[in-house]
Amino acid sequence: MPESVDPRHLLLIGAGPGIGASVVRRFGREGFRSTLISRGESLEQLAAELRSEGLGIDAVVADIEDLDAYRATLERIFGALGAPGVTVYNAALPDPGEILDTTVERLRTAYDVDVLGAVVAAQVAAPVLRTAGAGTLLFTNGGFATHPVPAVASLSICKAALRSAATLIAAGVQEHGIHAATVTIAGAVVRGTAFDPDNIAELFWTAHTDPTDAWQTEYRFAGV
Questions:
Q1: What residues pair up with 141 in beta bridges, in sequence order?
Q2: How far is CA 104 from the centre of its chain?
Q3: Which of 6, 110, 122, 186 is the most exposed place for a label (fewest CB within 10 A)?
Q4: CA-CA distance, 205 to 217, in Å (whole number)?
Q5: Which residues is 136 bridged to in the sheet?
Q6: pLDDT at residue 2 above 70?
Q7: How far is CA 49 from CA 16, 23, 29, 57, 108, in A?
Q8: In this structure, what DSSP letter does residue 168 have?
Q9: What pLDDT digit, counting tens, does each position of 185-208 carry?
Q10: Which is nearest to 169 in space by CA: 205, 141, 203?
Q11: Residue 42 DSSP SS3
Q12: Model confidence pLDDT, tens digit, residues 75-125
């Protein structure tokens, strides 16, 4: 890649101690530095923990619910030398409630975080990666995308929309050498189980490193 893009720079949007931290550690074992984005709660604590493990970590506070400010933050990151060659969109708003009991405002907020934040990330990253002729865009998804659950109506709706959005993003970037895909987790993420986030992180690494002729638009994790 040109020097404007660093193929060993991971941008993780929606940083947390579960899947996000495990993905950062997995890529870090391969020499990646990471930029973490979240709203700020416990962000610096997580960044400090990862740095203590010898990983190169930058932490950036951004609230996806403020889409304009969030876009501006991403534009600064992708406008700098060494912009991320890999982006993982891991943000979600798990707002419980059935569809007939929730409000339009809650649905709109969930859609902003779960779907539009991912679209904005792809819109900002794609031009830079197209110029580089390579890159990876991965989106954390869940089984709700194809099997909606009434008790988490907004998440079910949004994960289905994210699945469609990621498929459309892939169609728009693949010819430029950019791999875009969802990593769909068909189970509850709990450490010490088959759905341990460290196990899931391996699938993110597989999706990133798959050769072009093996690219998929959806990688499904159903336990190990």
A1: 184
A2: 25
A3: 186
A4: 14
A5: 86, 179
A6: no
A7: 11, 14, 15, 10, 34
A8: H
A9: 999 999 999 999 999 999 999 999
A10: 141
A11: coil
A12: 999 999 999 999 999 999 988 999 999 999 999 999 999 999 999 999 999
Specify the number of domains making up the chain.
Answer: 1
Instruction: Tell me the whole-structure pTM to 2 decimals.
Output: 0.96
Give residue 31's domain range. 5-221
C-alpha–C-alpha distance, residues 38 and 216, integer Å: 28
For the record, the structure tokens of 24 come out as 């950062």
Residue 1 confidence (pLDDT) above 70 = no
Could you identify the residue written with the tokens 């991965």? 138
Q: Which two tokens stand for residue 71?
A: 């876009």
CATH code where residue 45 lies: 3.40.50.720
For residue 180, give both structure tokens: 């875009």
Tokens read off for 41: 């709660």
The whole-angstrom distance between residue 95's C-alpha and the CA centroid of its chain comes to 18
**Residues in contact with 213: Cβ distance below 8 Å, sequence separation at least 6, in sequence order:** none
The two three-digit tokens of residue 15, written as one number: 């940083």
CA dist 67 → 41, 70, 113, 114, 119 (Å): 18, 5, 9, 12, 11
